[in-house]
Each structure stands twice: as C-alpha cells, then as structure tokens.
Amino acid sequence: xxxxxxxxxxxxxxxxxxxxxxxxxxxxxxxxxxxxxxxxxxxxxxxxxxxxxxxxxxxxxxxxxxxxxxxxxxxxxxxxxxxxxxxxxxxxxxxxxxxxxxxxxxxxxxxxxxxxxxxxxxxxxxxxxxxxxxxxxxxxxxxxxxxxxxxxxxxxxxxxxxxxxxxxxxxxxxxxxxxxxxxxxxxxxxxxxxxxxxxxxxxxxxxxxxxxxxxxxxxxxxxxxxxxxxxxxxxxxxxxxxxxxxxxxxxxxxxxxxxxxxxxxxxxxxxxxxxxxxxxxxxxxxxxxxxxxxxxxxxxxxxxxxxxxxxxxxxxxxxxxxxxxxxxxxxxxxxxxxxxxxxxxxxxxxxxxxxxxxxxxxxxxxxxxxxxxxxxxxxxxxxxxxxxxxxxxxxxxxxxxxxxxxxxxxxxxxxxxxxxxxxxxxxxxxxxxxxxxxxxx
Length: 441
Fold this sequence. Notes:
With 441 residues, the chain is an alpha+beta fold. It has helices at 4-7, 11-18, 23-26, 38-47, 60-63, 72-80, 84-90, 93-97, 127-134, 171-175, 177-182, 234-240, 253-258, 302-309, 324-346, 356-367, 370-388, 436-439, and strands spanning 33-35, 54-57, 99-106, 112-114, 142-150, 154-155, 162-163, 185-196, 201-205, 212-219, 222-226, 262-266, 271-275, 280-284, 290-298.
C-alpha cells in the first residue's frame, strides 16, 4: 500500500524530488485538467480533445472499477518490494516464465541499456531469463520493466477476444462494449504494464502511432510532462529525444521543461488521458515502486483523429515513426471499425446516445484518408456481396456483437464475437522504441 506521504504528495514536492523547476507548479497554464467524476472522464475519453492536454481522474482506478485488475502476486510485489530487482525476485518462477517484458538498466552516468542477451550471447526471451541475467549487471544501475504482458495470447474472460494483457479488466470494459466498439481503435491485445522505482521511467518520445492513451496508476507516484504537438516542439524534441530528465538536470533540460505544455502528478489510484502524438516523458518520484498500465485508442474528436492520420507523415517526428506495414495494418483495423460504426449508426444503435453527435464528423474525417476510405468501401462491398449471396443483411463476419452489455458496466461477450488478434505490435504509451531501427519510418 502506498505510504501516506506518497498519497498526499503535491506537485511541488514531486518537482523537488525530480529536480525539475518549481515554476512548473506555479504556472497555471501548465496544469492538467483534473476531473472527479467518472462519467465526465468517459465522455472525454470517447469524444473529448486531449491533444496538448493531460486529463486526470483522481481515484479513477476505483471509480472505473479497475481495483483488482492486476494479478494478486504482481500487485503484492509492487506494494511490498523496495525496488524493481526485488520485485522481480519476489515473483514465482513459473509466473515469470509465462511473461515477457523489456528490462532496461540505467547507470549513474545516465547510460541506458536493455537486457536482450545474456553475457554468453544467448538471446533472452521470458522475464525469468531476464531476471537471471540481471544478476550479472551493475548492481547500482536503476532497473525499469516495460511492456510487461503474457508471453502467449489467450482469450480474455470478459470479451472472449485474443489478448496478451496481464490485467483481468480494463477501462474498455467499464465503458461498455457498444461504446468502446464505436471508437475507431482500442487496443487490449498488447496492453503493457510498466514498473519502476524513483527516477526510473520513460524518456522523451512520441508514440510510433499518434493515438491517445488511457493510463491506470496501480502504485507509486509519477510525473508526466507533455510538449505541444507538431512543429512547436520539433526543435526541443531533436535536442532531447529519448532522454529522461533525472537529477541533476543537464544543460538545457530545465529550459526544455519550462517549455512543456502540461505537467501532471499521477498519484496511486489515478487514471489519466493524454495523446501519444504529444512528445511526453514519465518518471517515478515516489519511494515506492510505480506500476502503470496503458490502453491505446483513437477517439471521435477531430483533433485527435487528425493527429492519428498524421502518423507516418512528415508531421510525425522522424525518430518515432513506425514501419509503413505496421501503420497500414492498424489503419486497416481502423477502417473495419469505421465500417462497423457506419452500419451501427444506420441501424439506429446509437439513437439517444450523445456519441451519435460525434460519429458523423469522425467518419467523414477518417474517410479523408485515401487508404482508410478504400478499405471502408472494400469492407462494405464484401458485405453487400454476402447479402446478395443470401447472408441476410450481409453482416457475416462483423466484429461487433449487436447486443450491448450496458455502458458503465463490465462487458460480457461470447465466442461468436471473438475476433482474431489485432495487427498492432507496437510500443506502449509509456515506452518509446529505444532501438532506433524500430523507430525508422
């Protein structure tokens, strides 16, 4: 359980721990949007603008029914262990053998390396193998575990779809099947958990796909800073990309922080929304381990959609672009979801739902992308052909189930609605591609 000091930590105190300028707490324009109401947070998630903003729901883990989402053994190790090495040491070998995660070490000189091979040169796959290899690394190095998830895919108990997430439930389940399926994209398949001690975290980066992220803080306190999207921050990004601003700050880092658009302190139990299209940085500042999990999604707001469609273009910082094949696979997923939304709107599924007011504009904007539009039309042609062949209304193969589990509840789902694993094989919101080749466009 988080200490009283961590639960009551203020932004000013967190900045003092991090060695970041106190002006970040004094400048009201840099303050995040803080919500107390779960419904307002869900509305913002579904159709609100969060480009250039951070939206925090205090106590969101409980308010969005995410308590107990982490396996007990993992949650207990986060609560009880003093550092990441001890966290890994506390987990059962059989569990570690079933998990994969990226393990990063950072020396006192800020040099970072990832555990990919043992000292003998053997590739490291499971978290068990990496725990063993960690014993041969510098004992003074900080350790950060990123993208922690199952090694093997399985069908999630709440929607029967393939996933590798470690979590039993997500914000997606709270939102409800009908509404979460209405969004152009929502990823649970590759959801990752990130665990680290004080001064561990994720350096300045932009996501490989410029989607939005909803994070859940299951332990510890973490600073999150974002910089204005696009050209406004390109020079700062070129100077500081893949750098984590740990104390003492190096030359130019205080000035870069003072240029941040927003700075937020995430406390244990908070949930957060932000755009992965903004350059961002996250760093743990508590004595206890921080544990955060992220779901990536694309919502219905025009600003978020435009940024998503800029993925892989010159507007997307070159250091962070994904490969074209991966981008096209994800856009194909978006097109399929958009085709479903068009049908669902036509069939009256969202009558009386405020979401309907945002659906038409989102569909039109997505269709402005030639690749997406072509695949929407292709999907509808296939459905029309299926209808002509005698498949009723031509909905064979639709990803969505027609029944809704009720918004604000936990989704059910059945085998008939199970879909294949999505195409996305990408980095998490809190984890940039440290391998420069992985970031190449």
